[in-house]
Design brief:
The structure holds three protein chains of three kinds. By secondary structure, chain A is mostly helical. Chain A has three helices and no strands. Chain C is an all-alpha fold. The longest helix of chain C has about 30 residues, at about 65-95. The chains are: A mainly alpha, B mainly alpha, C mainly alpha.
């Protein structure tokens, strides 16, 4: 039961990864990275229950809290570049 | 069943790494490195290495991306096309890799309990740790008590790295804010601001500010939980310091870096970094003064197990404080360069 | 087979949650525009995580583990919605405009 759920979450992660690799704009990749983080949290929780070690939930909490930070950092980077008027980061 | 999860994760990792190496837009490479860190942490979890996964989670998601972005803001965002095709280098690397792979064929199987490394010290740690040291988490007891010297060395390395970074880059040495609130007068506007990026109006970030005010105390509280819970579950000093530093970085992202530098000043950080390391070394010297060896916690209290508990508590605190101070110092040093701050 | 009601409920929630997750992933892959892809990730962040975490809560009863799972869900909901908001605002400022519908259907 948990194994099937873990595999389903892995399938979602693979799809997200495709978008992160392909995504035409940088924002698409950022969205994909953010969603990947959420899926990792779920995967850790499910794998923790699968191997009967609920200690893993601390790691899941850390990810849920800190995943936010890298998204914000990239967005701040964009905003600063926008306000300075320098060239925005490369898109395809 | 875990094998299937492992295989899928490893293949995702391979795909990600290949794209990271080939892509020349460095910005996208940084975001993909975030994914790389997430997959690595999942792999560590399936391999049952919980403390390592914890550290990878805490460091790789927040801090690594921020430091890499700060470094990227100092340079071009596209990697240059190499001037020549590195075929000779490729051959050398391939030959070395093949020799290494051939060497690994002699290694014992992964997790084999009869292999040499599992037969001497590992048995002693696992069997004797509850009576000799105490905490249920064997990783903490090995790191903090059996291998306390190594952890002292690691903390010193982190401290030295922080010092080296500050010595090379420095904080901005232009006039710092000197705001004197004497009566109702506020004197001295700085001649050159700490960061020459124009300020973004605050109303733009209203949602982020409210959510940040809600979350930053929670992250700090969780960092304290991780610090003191390291005896019973995954955690410990390193992870707690990194998570606490992530809280400060989140504050600096949402409000400005200058505001964060006024809340947690560089002077305070210097003091804290030194204080953590001194605490660790001081515990060792205290043990010597009380009659035992350096970092021999048995003499710290009336009973050896209590002494071990106290000793581990104190040194983990020292490690946590130093790691926190150095991480935030690195963030300030890198994030305030050349005006294009993150 | 499982005859326990709790197990059946858990399996049901896990199934629906995974289905929503996969549909969110497929949506992320196939939708044409950045803003419409945010709908897909919003589905996974809120509904999928709620169902999966609730299934795990059902399995673990009234213990500390359930409290931690509640925390995880609370943090996930708030951070992911804030991140979506920040991303959308940033994309608008940068000039990415949403596709507003196919012209041949007007």
């Amino acid at each position: 039961m948990y194994a099937a759920a873990a595999l389903a979450i892995l399938v979602v992660m693979a799809l997200t990864l495709v978008r992160a690799l392909v995504g035409p704009t940088a924002f698409d990749r950022l969205l994909a990275v953010n969603m990947f983080g959420t899926k990792t949290v779920l995967l850790i929780a499910v794998v923790g229950f699968m191997t009967d070690r609920p200690d893993f939930l601390d790691i899941a909490i850390v990810y849920a809290l800190v995943n936010f930070l890298s998204t914000l950092a990239v967005l701040r980077f964009f905003e600063r570049q926008l306000h300075e008027g320098s060239a925005p980061p490369e898109e395809e | 069943m875990e094998a299937a999860v492992d295989i899928v994760l490893l293949s995702l990792l391979c795909v990600t790494v290949i794209v990271i190496v080939y892509i020349r837009k460095l910005f996208c490479a940084i975001m993909l490195l975030g994914i790389f860190s997430l997959i690595s942490a999942s792999l560590f979890i399936t391999m049952d290495a919980v403390d390592v996964a914890f550290t990878e989670a805490a460091v790789g998601t927040g801090i690594s991306s921020i430091l890499l972005l700060s470094a990227l803001s100092l340079t071009h965002t596209r990697e240059r096309r190499p001037a020549h095709q590195p075929y000779v280098a490729l051959m050398v690397v391939a030959v070395t890799g093949a020799v290494l792979v051939y060497g690994t064929m002699d290694l014992p199987a992964f997790g084999d309990p009869d292999s040499a490394i599992h037969r001497h010290m590992a048995v002693r740690f696992i069997v004797d740790s509850p009576q000799e040291v105490g905490p249920p988490n064997v990783v903490t007891s090995v790191l903090a008590s059996y291998r306390g010297y190594d952890t002292l060395g690691e903390t010193t390395v982190i401290f030295t790295a922080g010092i080296a970074l500050v010595a090379l880059l420095g904080f901005n040495r232009r006039k710092e804010f000197k705001v004197r609130l004497s009566g109702a007068q506020i004197t001295s506007v700085p001649e050159v601001p700490l960061s020459s990026a124009p300020k973004v109006p605050n109303a733009d970030y209203l949602v982020l500010r409210i959510v940040g005010k809600m979350f930053i105390p929670l992250i700090m509280l969780f960092a304290l939980y991780v610090q003191f819970h390291g005896d019973y579950g995954p955690g410990g000093g390193f992870q707690a310091g990194v998570i606490f530093a992530s809280a400060i970085m989140l504050y600096a992202m949402i409000f400005n870096v200058e505001t964060a530098m006024r809340v947690v000043t560089p002077t305070a950080l210097r003091l804290l970094a030194v204080l953590g390391l001194l605490l660790y070394g001081g515990v060792g010297v205290l043990c010597m003064l009380l009659g035992g060896n350096f970092l021999d916690y048995n003499v710290l209290a009336h009973a050896p197990l209590h002494g071990q508990h106290l000793g581990i508590f104190l040194i983990e605190l020292g490690v946590g404080i130093t790691v926190f101070a150095i991480m935030v110092t690195m963030f300030y040093a890198l994030g305030n360069r050349s005006g294009r701050s993150v | 087979m499982d005859f326990d009601l709790l197990d059946i409920l858990t399996a049901l929630f896990l199934t629906v949650g995974c289905f929503l997750g996969i549909s969110g992933g497929v949506g992320l892959y196939r939708l044409p525009d950045f803003f419409s892809r945010q709908h897909a990730t919003g589905v996974t962040d809120s509904a999928c995580s709620f169902l999966i975490l609730f299934a795990l809560i059902l399995q673990s009863g009234f213990t500390l583990v359930s409290v931690k799972l509640c925390f995880i869900f609370f943090f996930l909901v708030i951070t992911s919605t804030t991140a979506t908001h920040a991303l959308a605002k940033s994309a608008l400022h940068k000039g990415i405009t949403p596709i507003l519908g196919r012209e041949d259907k007007r």
